[in-house]
Amino acid sequence: AGGAGRLRVLRLDVTRACDVRAAKELVLSHLPERGFWGLVNNAGISTFGETGWLPMETYEKFADVNLLGSIRTTLAFLPLLRKYKGRIVFMSSIIAYFTLGNGIYSMTKAAIEKFCDALRLEMKKFGVQVCIIQPGNYARSTKIQPPVSAEEIWSELSEEEKAVYSKEYVQERANFFNSILSEGSTNGSEVVDAMVDALTSPAPRARYMVAKLKEKALVFVCALFPTDVMDFFLSYALSK
């Protein structure tokens, strides 16, 4: 694609309105006769930490990138997508259904799911398809979440949090989370294939869950069983 002159790359910080406007202007200046077909909202960041360990600035940053960044780009390109009956693809995660130490990431993915649900229904009358990709653990292939350091976490905790949590507890949580990261799939092409299908299939699915069987089972339990049951399973996993 690049060698044939069909691929153009640009810098795009989804938290900056001026970058989003520049991206739209570039698209408009190179719009093919068949119009604008697809937008993939893939930008995302992740981190680890219990609720009180993270400062408000971190919550704001995550909301701006993972949630508002997708909304910002979607709103900019929505007129073109409606005009040409295109596709919008969002990168969510199975972590939207539960959390094991990265609640801040879960929060943003759960929010983007609800945004997509509303958008999908609203866009049907325009012939615009809205698809959600829900990957499982692909930390090893995407590097979205590097291994966490208990020392760094401890050094950044407030004195109030240090009075509640011991250094040993932080180390245990870090070890647990790192063990999850180490189990991540290295075959990121599975997620890319789902994105391609969402963009090109005559009948794309509303949701593409690309995950291991045990991850899908966990989502199933979370979606269908009472909250108390899910809390029991997750608390047991954390205790181990």
From TrEMBL:
Which gene specifies this protein's sequence?
Bdh1_2
The protein's name in its UniProt record: BDH protein
Asked whether the keyword Nucleus is assigned, the reply is no
Keyword vocabulary terms for this entry:
Membrane, Transmembrane, Transmembrane helix
Q: Which family does it belong to?
A: Belongs to the short-chain dehydrogenases/reductases (SDR) family.
List the PANTHER family: D-BETA-HYDROXYBUTYRATE DEHYDROGENASE, MITOCHONDRIAL (PTHR43313:SF43), SHORT-CHAIN DEHYDROGENASE/REDUCTASE FAMILY 9C (PTHR43313)
Q: Which organism is it from?
A: Chaetops frenatus
Give the residue range of the signal peptide.
none
Q: Does the keyword Zinc apply?
A: no
**Membrane-spanning ranges:** 88-105, 217-238
